[in-house]
Amino acid sequence: KLAAKGGVKVPENFVYPHPDMCTIKHEDHAGCLKLIQKAMADPEQEPQVKEIYETCGVYLGYALAQYSEFYPIDHVMILGRVSKGKGGDLMLDTAKKVLAEEFPEYSHIQFHTADDHFKAVGQCIAAAALPTIA
Fold first, then answer.
1. How far apart are CA 21 and CA 130, in angstroms?
2. Cα dihedral 18, 19, 21, 22 sign
3. How far, CA to CA in Å, does 34 sit from each of 29, 31, 52, 83, 115?
4. CB 71 within 8 A of CB 80
5. Facing residues of 112 across strands?
């Protein structure tokens, strides 16, 4: 949803609200994320593209604060390709900053991540390990 607004050159079908971006079909979203990560690695594009990751970090910080109103949260495991690389680090740093500045009562929440390879496939492994609910 944020790629084109963040200055990333993406195909027309990756620009929200195109129907391809309004589904849960993984391939298109993964392809769009790869283009964002590639743009983040380009020094000329990074200043604008990093705003995408900062925005996601703000979303994450506020979401954790909201969930913390209902559930005691001390640790959060962050997985998935979006958490890879410089952009992922920026996203998590921004979320921590939001918690510290806007919700100091939740600033104790600790973030845990894996190495970049596991981040890319970690959601699949975590989902496969979920117990069966009868």
1. 28
2. positive
3. 9, 5, 13, 12, 18
4. no
5. 77
Tokens of 52: 């995408």
**Furthest CA-CA distance within the chain:** 53
Q: Under 8 Å CB-to-CB from 41, ≥6 apart: which residues?
A: 85, 86
* Tens-place pLDDT, residues 17-60: 999 889 888 889 899 999 999 999 999 999 999 999 999 999 99
Tokens read off for 80: 């998935």
Paired tokens of 133: 């609910």
- Helices 85-102 and 46-68 pack at an angle, to 10 degrees, of 50
- Asked if residues 78 and 92 have their Cβ atoms less than 8 Å apart, the reply is yes
DSSP 76: E
β strands within 1-133, DSSP E: 75-78, 110-113
* Cα distance from N-terminal residue to C-terminal residue, the chain: 36
Q: How far apart are the C-alpha atoms of 37 and 29, rounded to whole Å?
A: 12
What tokens does 121 get?
A: 């496939």
Q: Please state, in angstroms and rounded to a whole number, the distance separating the CA atoms of residues 61 and 50.
A: 17
Name the pTM for this structure: 0.83
